[in-house]
Amino acid sequence: MKKVLLNNSIFILIVVAMGILFLKRYSYLQIPIVSSPDSKILFHTNDGIMEQTWQPEVKVLAGINIPFLAENSFTGDLQVKVLSDDRSTILAQAVQTMDFQGGERGNIDFQFGKIKIGQGERYRIQLSILNPSEPGVLEIPSGSNYGGCSISGENIGQAVAIDMVGAKNSRLFWLMAVLFPLFAFSLLMMVVTGRKWEETVATALFLEGIILYLFGMAEHLLWGVNFVYLLAFVACVVAIYVYNKKEMNLNNLYSAGILVFLVLFGLILIGCKGDWLGMRDDLRHWGIAVRDMFYYDSFAKHMDTTVILPRYLPFTTLIEYFFVYANGSFSEDILLIAFQVMMLCATMIFSVLLQKREKKKWLLPVVSAMICIPVLFFPNLSSTIMVDSLMAVIMAYILICYYSEGMSWFNRIRICCAMCALALTKETGLVLAGVSALILFGDIFFRGMQKKKLDIKGLLYPVICVALVLGTYFSWQIYLNIPVKNNIEKAVYEETSQGAGQKEEKSTEGLAKEGSEAKENQVAPVQTKSAITASGISLAGLKAVLTGNGEWYQYQTTRNFLVELLDGETYSVGPMKLSFVDFLAGIVFLMVSLAFFGYWDGERGQKYIFAGMALIAGACFCAFLQVTYWFAFDRYEAMDLTSYDRYLAPYLCAIVMTVVYLIFEGNQQSKWERKKADFLVYLLTVFWIITMPVEGLIFESSSLEENTTQENTYGYDKIAEILRSMADKGEKVHFICSNSDGYAAYIFRNAVCPIVSEYDFWNIVPDQETYDKQYEIYKEGEINIHNTAYLMSKEAWESEIRKCKYVVIFHADELFKQSYPELFRETTIQDGSVYQVMDASGDMFLRFVGRTEIRGYH
Asked: Residue 516's pLDDT is what?
């Protein structure tokens, strides 16, 4: 019995710790409706009901704190209620008998226990004084730049400065909640297969994402979260049962990889704490996709989605959603943590090298390879959640799993899971999964040719992988094609209207009509777009280009592409500037040379085959990217080869990581002298440590040039706070920021989500003359002149904002102020202002709500 308890001590400790954390799981937050009160509301005992609207960002409400100053002495029962927006449901209510003394200042705390609320939904807080002993007055702080407060049904144009007490999960409970499924799934695979943590944790992560994906397609994403936890609990119980039945001990589970994971996980927590999203694409899609998922517990295929690109594949956003859900409130640093954990899980395969080796000797080469090689290709990796680096390490994981051991049933399963995750990460991931399968197929085929005996059964495996990957990818397309009552035509319009090349010059009348009727005319729903036409690629288009009948810029793009591919200075390795072909040829040459000079003991032919297949697969990937530039980009972006280095980096990074792993793996059985083989390993280690760019790791996203800084994020949170005092989830706000390249609109969309901010029309002019005048002014500055204004007449803009509840003037240039003064009536148009759209009896105008300071924009 003592031995059993000793062997199970770690599980007993974990269960006890989890129980304690569950009992202490809540962390309480004071959430002010008005963070900076500048006024006061006099609430009389005979006023009836004071009501304030509020849009929460948490899922649990625990209480309300009401500050007051009693102007005279009286007693009474102070009642507070929390109601649904339509006032049909009372979620919570409480009454306190108060004995107010004249001149008394204090706070009244109402505790509700734990009330579940819908994040982003609008609620109404009602305050009333019952049974007063005599007439009395309470002075309650308020914000004059806010809204949503009424007394006896009359809007007073302010917001009462009460604090809502919300509850979220504590950081320790959150750690347990996000790690438990990984631990449980990994533990089950470890005890069943005899593997170690580093061999199973990535598969556990992929399974977690795939489960969430399946439930998300069934429109029950929240059920998916609960099912992950249920399945994790079952897996944990079964794993402990198998562990005891096999009479295993803790030494069977322990590995150096667990310590590496925990240390790096701790560094991720420290490094990402308090950080925020800083890259344009993070705000354009990856960040707001998780926000939308958090507020709606659904994919973006719903009414009033805040996502611009709802067709983007969801694997990474699902994992990030899971991390955010476990927290109980949205936080951008958790997105960065979740992304880094995904990277860590995939690169943990390198720690397999520590299992049978001198750990002190190999720790530095292994850990440095896990960190330095991805950073070499993605210098801003620590401050972004763009998925290119993740695709790189997942592809490397696939190749390393294949080349590091035989094709056992577990190895086949984890490769399939990785390929499915890769195909669900991004459309480029589908191609990377395809070229990975091509490399596997080529290796099996050519080795069979060498042995003069083809392995037909082995050749079927990569074919099955491709079929599974295609099935996974097209399941997303099928899901998008399923008709829904509330389609997302608006989001599709925004997706298909991106890019400067689509803004050709037209007549003033035509452009004004286009601005006002675009959403009505662009009614092709997302369900009608195929996976191919979604990227603009079609067989007819390919035929036209290949037969010389394409657009002139497509051929110029090809010339630019070939020059950059062969002779560009795309990647920096220390002082060297290398093109894609130079880099790929260099790493292939290194592998061929080592094989030729006998570094590996046997399997020399396999290394030659891998080198050749890496070149063939690289050519296929480059061909895909060239076709993408032909059709999926506007002419300016195509000829400029937008993000060329970032799109090719995943393939190159995956090949480099695989080659490095094979070099490390071959060290022990190398035919070279021990000192010579070890020298090679440490030479490579020192090389990438020295050449790794460190600026992106040292500096936070707050200091990244041309991205989100403290200067150009100032003011958004206050504007969002003003809107949350009035708005409901899904209501629309029109955003104006002239003299901008549109980045401000991305920041704003994220700040106010789940309120819907239209991406287009943030820079508008009423006629061609004003359009030309603005163009001449801005083209001499630093503004991207491809992002020129939309032409929209005064009537067209009025029609557009009738669809909205609010208008935010973040920054308006003088041309805007001169062109659209009528709807503002006598109000001066100022930066940082919030207006409510008032449309009574057809007489529409913008009622000023309030304003806040701004500092920067771009």
From this structure: 37
